Amino acid sequence: MATHRRHLLGTIISYDLNYRDSLWKSIGGKAKATEVNRDLASYVDVMIGNEEDFTAALGFKIEGVGENLGKLDSSSFRRMIEKAVATFPNFRAVATTLRNAKTASINDWGAVCYYEGQFHEARPMPNLEIFDRVGGGDSFASGLIYGFLNEKGAEWAVNCGCAHGALAMTTPGDTTMATFDEVQRVMKGAGARVQR
Question: Could you tell me the pTM of the whole model?
Answer without folding.
Answer: 0.86
